[in-house]
Design goal:
Layout lengths: L32 H32 L7 H5 L7 H13 L1 H11 L10 H12 L5
Helix pairs in contact: 1-3, 1-5, 3-5
Length: 135
Amino acid sequence: TRNSAAMPPPLKNRSHAPAKVGQSRPPPRQPGRWMASRDAGERAAFFARREAATVLRRVLRGDASKRSGGSIKSLVFSPSVRNKRATFALVCQTLKYLPILKEVLASSGVFSSKWKKQEELVYVTAYDILFGQHS
């Protein structure tokens, strides 16, 4: 007699059957796996850029009004920022290259269009495209 509780039900799809003893079979290929991880990385970069643009906006507006909007570090370490390390790096590096970015974007006429209201996000994205680490 067989104990049906101890044995798993037979597999319908033979391609996923366990390998025989002594043979190793690679795991079944998941077609969207690489794309999903790439999309997740792009999504994380998108959110880091958004958060960096928010911090950059507060820093630049505080500097323009001659009063402190807070230090970069205190703004990045606020509870609303999720990816603190990437946000801090993006803000610092964007500020480092800001004069060059302003000149390039002004000469290209980007801010005469709908992007005027999202000026800081354009700065962060332009930094990331032009000077950021590409993998």
